[in-house]
Amino acid sequence: MSESLHGPETPYDPTAPEVMADPFPAYAEMADRCPVAHSDTLANPLFSMVRRDDVYEMLTDTDLWSNANGAGISFDKSVGSVQRYDPPEHGVRRRFLRAPFLPRAAEKNADAVRSLAEDLIDGLIDHGSAELHDDFAVPLPIVSFARILGMDETEADRFKHWADLTTLGMAFPDKAVGIREAVRGYTMGEVMTRRNAVAEANLPDGEDPVGNVVPAGILSQLCCHPLEDGSFATDDEVTGLVSMMLVAGHETTTSLITNMVWRLLEDRNRWEQLLAHPELVENVVEESLRFDPPVLGNCRTNNEPIERHGVEIPADHKVMYLVGAANRDPETFENPDDFVVDRPLLESRRHYSFGWGPHFCLGAHVARVAGREALHTLITRLPSLRLDGPTERLPQPFLWGRYRLPVAWN
User: Fold this and answer.
1) How far apart are CA 52 and CA 324, in angstroms?
2) I need a labelling partner for 12 at 20 to 30 A (CA). Which of 28, 190, 310, 358 fits?
3) What is the pLDDT of residue 6?
């Protein structure tokens, strides 16, 4: 343990090879030795919290912990989005967006997700092998979220490329130069197309153009409908929402799918247990979210100086809450370092992988449906599925998922 000007702290390098390979032992050591860690290997110096109580405070105390500077380690106020608002402004925008993400709405899309999963397997099954990340886990959620946004599903490859660069830029801004401008240019083109279509339609007062003149979806709603306070979302807010959906909407769901399959196949007994008890699919989805959170941690900014566990953190510092550590709290979860296929839902759902409190992930139910339908399709159509080579994790230090997942079947 080292001493700093701010008090005792544990040095922490999220980019160290052993941490990139498996961050969870580092989290356990940090929680045991000193629960406030420090890193200076990224774009900005970073404090990190690992204990569950501290993570809960950061997720729920919006007076102390602000979202205004973005969820990444860099201070970023340049693009507005629902993620960069604190209450009460955050609530105004969240309520406007929430309808397509509610459980009932998410379940209405289950048939479409299942049909797409079946189509993807139909295109692969005769090959006997596949790169599950590229061939199945990427197209399934990104197409689903393109539909929610009301954007062109055939642009899935472009969205994927932007999502990769956006997430990499959260830790290494120099690696994502120009990505914001690319997303903004595309989004503003879509916005102007919709606005022009509405203007040319010259609809009678009170007639809704969404789903009629312009495609149904959140993007059209933002263009055509005011928020509850009567204002319209700004161009920056619309662009920020699209960027957020690229990462939160598809990248994380892709990782949920690859993480589930990876853990089930690395221990064949887990896969066989699920084959014998397909009613446990939902349990596996939640256990995967707990055990392998697609986002290991996000940042808040403290509005005032604080002291935690002997470490002083001056005001306006980026502090990361590591859900990957909180999700393995031994006082909350029995045998937290074991992946348990039949772990009770009431226990596993206490994970923080979708956050908690006012910023709880809007897309949580959509992701759960996609994960459930993906896994159900795989065990039904490919019961002999097996790993077919080494896997590879995502290169972004705070995202956790298999970027390479070669599989084969009989």
Assistant:
1) 10
2) 358
3) 38
Rounded to an integer, what distance in angstroms lies between the CA atom of residue 88 and that of residue 85? Answer: 8
Q: Tell me: the pLDDT tens digits for 13-51?
A: 898 999 999 999 999 999 988 899 888 877 778 899 999
Total domain count, the chain? 1
- Sheet with 36-39: list strands edge to edge: 2-4, 7-11, 36-39, 46-49, 318-322, 297-302, 65-66
> CA 354 → CA 22, 56, 94, 192, 270, distances in Å?
21, 12, 15, 33, 24
Q: What's the rounded Cα separation, in Å, for the pair 326 and 298?
A: 13
Q: Measure the CA–CA gap between 400 and 296, rounded to whole angstroms.
A: 6
- Sorted by sequence, the CB contacts under 8 Å of residue 153 that are 6+ apart come out as 143, 146, 147
265 touches 390 (CB < 8 A) = no
Question: In angstroms, rounded to a whole number, what is the distance separating the alpha carbons of residues 283 and 160?
Answer: 28
Q: Cα 8 to the chain's mean position, in Å?
A: 32
DSSP, res 313: E
Tens of pLDDT, residue by residue over 338-363, are: 999 999 999 999 999 999 998 888 88
| Per-residue model confidence as pLDDT tens digits over 329-343 | 999 999 999 999 999
Strands 406-408 and 318-322: unpaired
Phi (first) and psi of residue 8, to 5 degrees:
-70, 140
What is the rounded distance in angstroms from the CA atom of residue 361 to the CA atom of residue 344? Answer: 22
Q: Is residue 75 helix, strand or coil?
A: coil
- Structural domain harbouring 295: 2-408
- Stretch 316-324: mean pLDDT: 95
- What length does the chain have? 410
Q: Tokens 């596996």 — which residue?
A: 284
